[in-house]
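Reply to dn_fold:

You asked what the input looked like. This is it:
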Amino acid sequence: MLQGYLSSMLPSELTALFLFLLLLVLVIYLINAIAFYNLAVRYGVPSPWMSFVPILNVYQTGRFINAMLPDVPPLYQRFSHISFCLLTLGGYAIDIIITLFVPQLENLWSIFYTPFGLAIAFLLYYLFFSRYVPQKRLTYTILATLICGPIFILYFLSKERKEQQNT
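and this is what came back:
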């Protein structure tokens, strides 16, 4: 149904739709990058600029999880963000290979890989909200995972900054 609708659109309409979607993706990417940059600064994660670079931001996410986990053994802390990065990028690589060479399995792979991405986002948000709103951490975690989580992160970080300025 959607394919028939798209094929009946004029080239100018398709261009406008493409530009709108591109702009939307860029805005969401920037919101994510700004939130993760602020998170890196707040928790003292080295090289916060990595939050703006596409593959390096996955590596940086592993560093956030390390910074927010209490009492993590030093050896695990040293290598966990690398293993997180390899798992995530490996999943992306497998997704691309399946899409290009075995498109019939694409939906089956998505069934397994999408929950992995959601679980990582859930863990990151759960750790974050455990520090900021411990009594409602599960509610905020579910909302942040389903909606645009970085907006919640930016809100709580700015709220924390305001409280620190008032004291």
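The chain has a mean pLDDT of 78.
Hope that clears it up.
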